[in-house]
Amino acid sequence: MPEIAAILAERGKSHGDFTDNAKVMQALKHIVHDGVGWHSLSDPHREAIHMILHKVGRIVTGNPNVQDHWDDIAGYAKLASDRCQP
Question: How buried is 15 (Cβ within 10 angstroms: 0-12 exposed, 13-18 middle, 19+ buried)?
Fold first, then answer.
């Protein structure tokens, strides 16, 4: 499976090391799960937060100048915003 190895090597340049990613992302998730309002969030809001934290993890462990990371955060925030109940 050399093509998978090549993909992983390329992603490592922008996303950083997977073990480093996991450590940061899991720590961030533990913090937000302890928030008093976590259980009152809708599934879409929870998932958007998870994805935003995932992207933050990539930013702080990988290349922070990858515009896609930042655009993805904006996109997930918009998806969550569109599902807010008045």
Answer: buried
Q: Among residues 60, 58, 55, 46, which one has the least CA distance to residue 74?
A: 55
DSSP 25-80: HHHHHHHHHTSTTGGGS-HHHHHHHHHHHHHHHHHHHS-TT-HHHHHHHHHHHHHH
Q: How confident is the model at residue 1 (pLDDT cuts 50, 70, 90)?
A: low
- Within a domain: residue 86? no
Work out how many domains the chain is built from and give that number: 1
